[in-house]
Amino acid sequence: MRRITAGLFVSLDGVVGEPQDWHFPYFNDEMGAAVGAQLASADTLLLGRETYDSFAGAWPGREAAGGEDAGMAKALGDARKIVVSHQDLDFTWRNSEQLAGDLVDAVTELKQQPGATDIAMSGSPSIVQQLLAAGLIDELHLLVHPVALRSGKRLFEEGAPIPLRLISAQTFTTGVLHLIYTSADASGSVGYDDAKVHLADVTGNPA
């Protein structure tokens, strides 16, 4: 089964909305390498419409310009791009198509298709939220920026808990944390009564 990796810019207080308004002061070569590595591991991109429109409005021009990021632009252009939208879409960027049918069912089927490389997501927080809740994301790459925005769309809204396990952590010179999580089995978590016993053992006082 193919893996899905999802990369998101996130503030210290969990905001993922409108990253173009607060993200760029923290961008450097370290972050560029992290984002590039996540996308380069995939031959398929799964994107929400707004993220796709942003990519399609920028990367084809960068490929044509032949600048230092032309290689990345070509790789994104060559990748299969699947767009999640309730609207009928017309595509001008090559290798683009619209996801058909129910999101969870269609992505489950997509993961079962042959292929040795990953399916990558960038941004698209609403889609990430739904696929996380369905247990379909294998790696969640969070670039946590050292800023508290105090308003905006958050990655984790109200709902059932989603247990995660940290598999990698890196601190950039800007103070950004690059955290990679995978799913965790909640059945192995410590219960409240066990936690009270552990706390009593550590402190020597009844919990």
At a glance:
This protein has an eight-stranded mixed beta sheet with strand order 4-3-2-5-1-6-8-7. α2 (49-65) crosses α3. It has helices spanning 29-40, 49-65, 70-78, 103-111, 125-133, 192-203; strands spanning 4-11, 42-48, 80-84, 96-98, 118-122, 139-145, 164-171, 177-183.
Features:
alpha/beta; globular; 207 residues; single chain; 6 helices; eight-stranded mixed sheet; 33% helix
In the sheet with the most strands, the strands line up as: 4-3-2-5-1-6-8-7
Secondary-structure element sequence?
A: EHEHHEEHEHEEEH
Supply Rg.
19 Å
Fraction of residues in H or I helices: 25-40%
Report how far the terminal alpha carbons are from each other. 45 Å
Shape: globular
Give the amount of beta strand, in percent: 15-25%
- The overall average pLDDT, rounded, is 90
Parts with pLDDT < 50 across at least 5 consecutive residues:
186-192
Structural class: alpha/beta
Number of helices: 6
Number of strands: 8
Main sheet? 8 strands, mixed
